[in-house]
Amino acid sequence: MFIADPTKPPNDVFMYTLHPTRPAMLREGSTDAEKALAGQHWMYSIDLLKKGTIFFAGRTMVTTDESFAICVIRAKSEAEARAIAENDPAVRGGLFRYQLFPYQPMLIGD
What we know:
The chain has 110 residues and is α+β, with helices and mostly antiparallel strands. It has helices at residues 25-28, 32-50, 78-86, 89-92, and strands at 2-3, 13-20, 54-59, 69-74, 96-102, 107-108. It has one domain (11-103): Alpha-Beta Plaits. The chain is globular.
């Protein structure tokens, strides 16, 4: 179990959200190009996880226009965190758009 000290926010943790640029793909199915980018995104994410960059990641299970995913990462600076998000093949390829935020994990269970 982890309980954060809110008076000591980390300076090396960031969260970015990923939003599909064509949310209809969640309801109608993905194009071949979207499937290819999603596969590249998955491999990129696994590589970040193996390197210890990703703290955790996941996605909502809704298929509405509000659907999104999050990725919580460790990075030395906001510029490095932005580069990680921007280098995601699915972001570069236009499958997702992202938003980056400084982040403080507060409560983590076993």
